[in-house]
Amino acid sequence: MKVGILGGGQLARMIALAGYPLGLDFVIIDPSNVAGAIGLANHLHGAYDDKVLLQELAHQTDIVTYEFENVPASIAQFLAHHTQIAPCDQALAIAQDRLIEKKFFNDLNIPTTNFAAVNSLNDLEQASKTIGLPAILKSCRMGYDGKGQVPLQGPEDLASAWNSMRNAPSIIEGFVPHTREISIIAARRPTGETVYYPLSENSHSQGILRVSRCCIDDPKQQEAEQYLSRILEELDYVGVIALELFDVQGQLLANEFAPRVHNSGHWTIEGSETSQFENHLRAILDWPLGSTQSTGYSGMVNFIGGLPPSEHVLAIKNTHQHLYAKQPRPGRKVGHATVRANDHALFESSLEQLIQLAEQHRS
Q1: For FRET with 212, which of 78, 224, 329, 349 sits at 20 to 30 Å CA-CA?
Q2: Is the per-residue pLDDT at 35 higher than 70?
């Protein structure tokens, strides 16, 4: 059986690595000739909106999925006329626009921070009075890893912030004095069978995820599952999904969801009975889902901009390295490593060593 993937980066790479033991083969579309998944899949080299390539992808595969949410929903709709595709194009369309996404959450009674649409400097000036400052201005579309986001500390920041958006439709969100940032990942089959992973507690710097820790038996697990289940049922969702939340002194506020496998779930490769990547494949193929039971204490550290020497990474006890075949450059995710241990003290010690090592080589 062959699975098509729109995008050939590290997420496609890890999906393929999870799929080969299941007897699956892969075909990717990617405009880059050095994409990380190329060595693991047949590569259709070209643009994501090339309809000839899309038809070829549909012809070569049994089902198509995607590794990032900025694939135009129209492409998913086009592919749906030629083959099976999961997750659905509606999930893509919602996740691609922050304003639509926030309204979607509120329609499902999932609380969020206060927000308002911004389409001009006057809109921003008026909304900042209602929302209050500090706040953050975000482009509605195409922002990720801190891109398309400008913090607003005071009225003096408004004009320059709006100018940086270049008149793109945007959204202002009230600042959230959160206790922590968390995410929850689930996988759902067409039958409705759903499994949830333990919460991840996440640390970011400059908008980029740095560290994720698995939170076994977290007190907010059930509430997070309830919110995510509303999204899954509303969309009749198929595949893996991640919901990012702010924990504000015990109250959960939804930030955004990703209709794909997610960086904060990379620890599941070693830290769960079944990784998010394998369960994504099981879900879209309508195969029985694997257990999400944790196999110990686990966490993940991203390598941003540069790579520590492999021998230094692997010298840390209970550490596993994952490289993406990407050239280092500032702000780019080029790999990650996980720590998994049965002993909590050993886990914390190893994770802290890994964090420090990654920071020494960050650029």
Answers
A1: 329
A2: yes
